[in-house]
């Protein structure tokens, strides 16, 4: 089995990506399990594509085997696409997801419902030692609620209502969310690309 190192420490992501890779005779290994525990990389990119590449390349340079990294976040149209690549640290250094949600709601206080459009974006980059590169992008369009709703999910899930639904990701079951999520779509695209 060919090993593929994942930059992520998120067990859910590792499992999801592992299920896809196994169809192609590859096994997913977390960077911790591979022994890359002291790993800090500065995400200096201005796009999700750049940041996922930076992370994947840093691990490829250390390990010399195929690597996968992802970057994701929320883009809100009425505030110029922010928080974008700064989604995790939108409210400043050391902020919590709750802080980020409060900041976003504050910025959108007087924005009418029809102008509250947004999208979650997920980009997965897979790099091979021979120079090949696969980049899979997934998007989920929706809108921002006027208040936090639901206890499920993480990040901006209590605020994001996907197109075609009246409830937030935070109010959905994991299966409901995964059936329409940006990460589900980028994973499906990665599977297509590996098949090609």
Helix and strand sequence = EHEHHEHEEEHH
- What proportion strand? 15-25%
CATH top level assignment: Alpha Beta
The number of strands is 6
Instruction: Compute the number of structural domains.
Output: 1
Radius of gyration: 17 Å
Q: Structural class, from secondary structure content? A: alpha/beta
- Quick one: biggest sheet? 6 strands, mixed
Distance separating the two termini? 19 Å
Number of helices: 6
Shape: globular
Report on this model:
The protein is α/β, with parallel strands linked by helices and about 200 residues long. It has a single domain, classed as Maf protein, CATH 3.90.950.10. Helix content is about 35%, strand content about 25%. A 6-stranded mixed beta sheet has the order 2-1-3-4-5-6. Helix 1 (about 10-20) runs parallel beside helix 6 (about 180-195). The radius of gyration is 17 Å and the shape is globular.
What would you say about this model in short?
The chain has a single domain, classed as Maf protein (Alpha-Beta Complex).
Keywords:
metal ion binding; Maf protein; 6-stranded mixed sheet; 196 residues; nucleotide-binding; ribonucleoside triphosphate phosphatase activity; dITP/XTP pyrophosphatase; single chain; ITPase-like_fam; alpha/beta
